[in-house]
Design brief:
The complex is a heterodimer of chains A (about 400) and B (about 325). Helices cover about 45% and strands about 15% of the residues of chain A. Chain A has helices spanning about 15-20, 30-40, 45-55, 60-80, 100-105, 140-150, 160-165, 170-175, 180-210, 230-245, 265-270, 305-310, 345-360, 380-400; strands at about 105-120, 120-135, 155-160, 215-220, 250-255, 275-280, 315-320, 335-340, 340-345, 365-370. In chain A, the strands form three sheets. A six-stranded parallel beta sheet of chain A has the order 3-4-5-6-7-10. A two-stranded antiparallel sheet of chain A has the order 1-2. Chain A is globular. Chain A starts with 16 loop residues before the first helix and ends with a helix. The mean pLDDT of chain A is about 95. Chain B is of the alpha/beta class and about 325 residues long. Helix content of chain B is about 35%, strand content about 20%. In chain B, the strands form two sheets. In chain B, strands 1-10-9-8-7-6-4 form a seven-stranded parallel beta sheet. In chain B, strands 2-3-5 form a three-stranded mixed beta sheet. In chain B, strand 2 and strand 3 (about 95-110) form a beta hairpin. The longest helix of chain B is centred in the first third of the chain and has 21 residues, at about 35-55. Chain B is globular, with a radius of gyration of 19 Å. At the A-B interface, strand 1, strand 2, helix 8 and helix 9 of A face helix 1, strand 2, strand 3 and helix 9 of B.
Chain lengths: ~400, ~325
């Protein structure tokens, strides 16, 4: 019998200062000291050779490459040391962020500027000004570095085509539209844009990754629940099925933070996703921080029922820790609050896994992970959360032994 | 009667911050610059926006609400019985988020500070000021209710409190208050359609909020097709009603109003800047189906969804289209 409740990472880790600064200018003493301190903690054995190479490299582009490699190695070791079973690509250290990194590689797209997300948080938004095509591989180099250094199972998270389209402006395809109504014209343009991204960008990328040895690709589609309308959900399914068509590889979807309507609509359409072996979803964010493996405490996990009742038969990647600021109350034994973070206890994580498993109905179909990438937490916090997930999964396993 | 040939132009809600202001607010968030620097830039951005509107002869001036963190925040802060936590919710089907108001006790007017709503004193420009706030129905729908057993009571109390906010804004010299009511038209998939009673309650709440200042209030809808409730909206005793043409099925729509019809005719969610010719032509087509005493050209929703330079270009296109309509109307 395979190990129950394997633990996986789900996305990005924060980037250390030396990773951010090191691709812009030579590293300072402070940066090197910080990198060295973490090298000791993460047992990066060849740290001194690697950092010396970075320090001696006069060419910015070559230095950046060395910094990327080192940072990726740190991410992998952080996940491995925490005891994860699948370590992804080491926390996406080589990507600016999920949208910008992909868009930069697409011909026909141009960044226009920033728009507000909330408060003083913004995202850089691009527009399709011409037919989209992949300019160069997006994730291939990172995957090569991961393969060379990983000691555990890996998967490659990629930003899904629906999200890339949803987060972009669409002038080129709108201009080509012929529908008479304004809404219909936008929908027609969105479909054409999406299918072009799938065909000309995402499929060539997956082909390269599979040829390079990728066995599992996680398609990140956080935008899919933004428009809970049949047109958009059908478009998402069409794009997904075209994306995965013909590839011999495991595919999973990661979606998080849906609109008020929740996961209901995604649950209705999930069974239509070809080759979707796993849905990795955020739940802890909407759950209570009290112990207990019954419905009253585990309210955040209820929507798993919608997926099961809707006929999705694959695995679930169950989000068991919160990845943003926390300001609620924590019940006895459920964890502790450190600054703006909650560090969920292994017991709380166990209870979440046990309740989610009841709803899924088959423990072999349950993976566990953070709700989303941990990029807004420090490495210290991320390590604590991940270690506790591993401990929580072990406690849950005892319940099923 | 003012003829259709001279349509007014408004902005709606939150305008975009400039790249310079964005850079400063991000730096402030990281503790790299002080608030004074941000404030100076905020002032400059606001003045530039006011000068733009003034130069384009807009009927009403909006300060762009550049200090607002989301469309709900100033109203939330001015009501008693409403608090807020760290929970952010998605703003309809956009990629933006708002801090969810939490209703913890009876809602009333709390501490009202007009500067929280509009930066009138920032510029020497004298004009008719317009402020956009969420309408009572949308505010109630988008809040988390932890106090009222009957949601209708919540809606009524929010409407009464908002009436006082509207009164105070008008007393402070605001000429036009937009009650933004996207929830009247946004009916996502699988959500039940409005029943007559629910619609009646929602519209009654709007009437309460507008009350004595109805001639200085417009109700703007966006993110959804107003078709199913349009005639009821147009019958509201307010100065005007707004619709989002990018969500409206124009082939079936018809109605008439004795007030203003605000056409959300430039798309705040796309970077493409609409040609003035196209705006004018489309406005004419719509006006054949929707009769109104006055026509107003506006963005369909807050222009904050596009970068600042594009938002400003869209404002210019609206003004040019208004001019074209004035010259060309048969």
């Amino acid at each position: 019998m395979e190990k129950l409740f394997p633990v996986q990472e789900i996305g990005s880790l924060s980037k250390p200062r030396w990773r951010i600064e090191g691709i812009r200018r030579p590293l300072s003493t402070v940066d090197v000291e910080d990198a060295e301190a973490w090298a000791d903690r993460l047992t990066v054995r060849d740290f001194h050779d690697r950092i010396n190479a970075v320090l001696k490299e006069p060419d910015t582009k070559n230095r950046s490459r060395l910094v990327f490699q080192l940072s990726t190695l740190y991410g992998l070791r952080l996940f491995e040391n925490a005891g994860l079973d699948n370590i992804g690509v080491g926390g996406e250290q080589q990507r600016v962020e999920m949208y910008e990194h992909a868009i930069k590689a697409i011909e026909g797209m141009e960044f226009l500027g920033h728009v507000q997300s909330f408060d003083y948080k913004y995202f850089k938004k691009a527009v399709a000004l011409g037919e989209v095509k992949r300019r160069h591989p997006i994730y291939l180099q990172e995957f090569g570095d991961v393969k060379e250094n990983s000691r555990s199972q890996v998967k490659v998270p990629i930003t899904g085509p629906y999200t890339l389209v949803e987060w972009s402006f669409n002038e080129f395809y709108l201009r080509r539209g012929s529908a008479s109504g304004l809404k219909q014209r936008k929908q027609e343009a969105k479909r054409e844009f999406l299918l072009n991204i799938v065909q000309n960008v995402i499929r060539p990328e997956i082909r390269d990754l599979v040829d390079a040895g990728a066995k599992w690709i996680q398609i990140d589609e956080p935008a899919v629940t933004t428009h809970p309308e049949p047109f958009d959900l059908e478009l998402f399914v069409e794009g997904w099925n075209e994306t995965v068509r013909g590839f011999n590889c495991k595919f999973s979807d990661h979606t998080c933070y849906p609109s008020e309507i929740g996961y209901k609509v995604l649950a209705e359409y999930a069974p239509k996703l070809d080759k979707c072996s796993q849905l990795a979803l955020e739940f802890a964010n909407r759950d209570s921080a009290r112990l207990g493996a019954d419905k009253s405490e585990r309210v955040g996990y209820e929507s798993i029922r919608d997926f099961v009742d809707g006929g999705f038969g694959g695995e679930f990647g169950v989000g068991v820790v919160h990845v943003h600021d926390f300001s609620g109350e924590v019940g006895y034994g459920a964890g502790r609050v450190l600054g703006r973070n909650i560090i969920e206890s292994p017991e709380l994580i166990r209870d979440r896994i046990v309740y989610a498993t009841k709803l899924v109905g088959d423990p072999a179909k349950v993976w566990v992970n953070p709700d989303c990438g941990l990029r807004t937490r420090t490495w210290e916090t991320s390590s604590s959360k991940l270690s506790n997930i591993v401990k929580g999964a072990a406690l849950a396993r005892e319940e099923y032994s | 009667m003012r003829k259709l040939m001279c349509p007014g132009v408004h902005l709606s809600g939150l305008h975009s911050r400039s790249e310079a202001l964005i850079g400063l607010t991000r730096a402030f968030d990281r503790g790299q610059v002080g608030w004074n620097e941000v404030q100076e830039r905020l002032k400059l951005d606001t003045m530039q926006l006011l000068e733009l509107q003034h130069g384009l002869n807009f009927d009403y001036l909006s300060d762009g609400a550049l200090t607002w963190q989301d469309p709900m925040r100033p109203l939330t802060r001015s009501l008693s019985g409403v608090t807020y936590g760290a929970r952010y919710s998605r703003w309809f089907d956009t990629n933006t988020f708002y801090q969810k108001p939490i209703v913890t006790r009876e809602v009333g007017l709390g501490e009202f500070d007009v500067d929280g709503f509009v930066q009138k004193s920032i510029s020497p420009i004298i004009g008719n000021w317009k402020v956009s706030i969420p309408g009572p129905f949308s505010f109630s729908e988008l809040s988390e209710n932890e106090f009222y057993e009957d949601p209708e009571e919540l809606l009524r109390d929010v409407a009464r409190a908002e009436r006082q906010v509207v009164d105070k804004l008008v007393e402070s010299g605001v000429s036009l208050v937009q009650l933004s009511e996207p929830c009247l038209v946004y009916r996502p998939y699988r959500k039940k359609p409005f029943g007559p009673e629910e619609l009646d309650s929602a519209l009654s709440a709007v009437k309460i909020a507008a009350n004595a200042n109805a001639s200085k209030v417009i109700v703007h809808t966006f993110f959804g097709d107003p078709g199913p409730v349009l005639q009821e909206l147009l019958n509201l005793p307010v100065a005007g009603v707004g619709v989002d043409l990018y969500e409206t099925d124009l082939s079936t729509i018809h109605g008439n109003t004795r007030g203003q019809l605000v056409l959300g005719i430039v798309d705040s969610r796309e970077s493409h800047v609409e040609e003035p010719d196209w705006i004018a032509k489309t406005a004419k087509q719509v006006s054949r189906r929707l009769e109104a005493k006055e026509l107003v050209l506006a963005p369909n929703t807050d222009l904050r969804h596009v970068p600042r330079n594009i938002a400003d270009q869209k404002a210019q296109s609206l003004a040019k289209a208004s001019k074209l309509l004035t010259e060309d109307w048969p």
